[in-house]
Predict the 3D structure of the following.
Amino acid sequence: IDKRSISEAAKACGFSRPSFYQAMTAFESGGLAALLAHKSGPHGGHKLTPTVLQFICEARATDPDIRAERLAELVHQNFGVQVHPRSIERQLLRKKKRR
């Protein structure tokens, strides 16, 4: 609009040229929503695979009073995966809500 080069415009707005092109590509492909920040990293319990969840449910069926801390220990012993007890609690709550 102002007849400036991309380098000048990017610098004036505090962007690098590569960042400008990245934003332009995101805007062209996804509109304004594509420019909003989004959470990076895994989105969900990637350690709690269906096999691990099945194991947790079976352990819970055997002993309904078993604590999440103990379940986390059992998961670590049987699968070699460190899972936070709170992750197990959240997954069990989700499962309970679906019923």
About this structure: The chain has five helices and no strands. The chain has two domains: 6-35, 50-93. The mean pLDDT is 90. Residues 18 and 96 are 47 Å apart (CA to CA).
